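SUBJECT: A protein chain and its fold
Encoding: whole-number codes for local backbone shapes
RECORD BEGINS BELOW THIS LINE
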Amino acid sequence: MWEQSVLSLTCFIKSSDKLYRSILTNKYLSPYVVDYINGNGIPKRAIFLIWLTIGFSVLFVIDKIILQIMLLSIASIVSIYIWTRSSSKSDRELE
């Protein structure tokens, strides 16, 4: 159910200027979205958050093995995507 919501949001954001503006003005999401849009990348710490949330779901929420495998596969693909892209400004400052 959650994955469908994220997919819907992703598709809808491109068609709704109001939603797009609300995400760009959100105090939690906007720094990441703006950095990504401007080509500054995604912070590597996002990988930790992905594995934390998906790991929790796999261990405590999802009981069907096929869904667990799918979630772990998605987490792996997204982690590889983030890792192979240019890092965000905050990651470069830490180096």
The radius of gyration is 15 Å. The CA atoms of residues 41 and 88 lie 5 Å apart. The chain has two domains: 1-38, 42-95. The helical segments are 2-13, 17-24, 30-37, 45-61, 65-84, 89-94.
